Amino acid sequence: MSYRRLTSPAETAEWIILVGAAFAVLGGWIPWMGHAPYYFVAGVALIGAGILMLWNRSAGLWWYFAMFAAALIWSIFKVGLDGWSLLPRLFVLALIGIGISLVILITSHSTAGRPLRVAAIVTAVIYVVAIASMLWSAIA
């Protein structure tokens, strides 16, 4: 086993790939039961984001964010703006997005990484706002 820091971007990417594989494999059965192939598509998108992050590409952050935005649109189309119905579909994805953003903030130190850190901050704020909006809608 190689030595890596606790907040290694490669380790985070590996976890994203594993979560994506679970989504893709388990979500692959859902269309045969007459439902939307959302979970399979989301799993493939997660695998893609994880691979981009594993290759140290900043596009991984944007790919994950695009997948979250697509999940948000799909969820609102499916259940409306009901916070309780949105939470199971988006809460974990938003938490993972916050984790990705924090790992990027912690590990990118060079001046070349400044635009990436700004992007990580912006996406983290959007994930937090999404979680707060869902909770606010569920409570109200």
Largest sheet, in brief, is:
none
Tally of alpha and pi helices = 5
* Low-confidence parts: none
Shape: flat
User: Structural class, please?
Assistant: mainly alpha
Q: Summarize the amount of helix as a percent range.
A: over 70%
Specify Rg, calculated over alpha carbons: 16 Å
Number of domains: 1
In percent, how much strand structure appears in the residues? Answer: under 5%
How far do the termini sit from each other?
49 Å
For the secondary structure, the number of strands is 0
Query: What order do the SSEs take from the amino end to the carboxyl end, as H and E?
Result: HHHHH
Mean pLDDT: 87
Q: Could you explain how this protein is built, in words?
A:
Keywords: Membrane, Transmembrane, Transmembrane helix. With 140 residues, the chain is mostly helical. The protein has helices at 9-27, 38-54, 59-79, 83-107, 114-139. The protein has one domain. α2 runs antiparallel to α3. The protein starts with 8 loop residues before the first helix and ends with a helix. The model has no long low-confidence stretch (mean pLDDT 87).
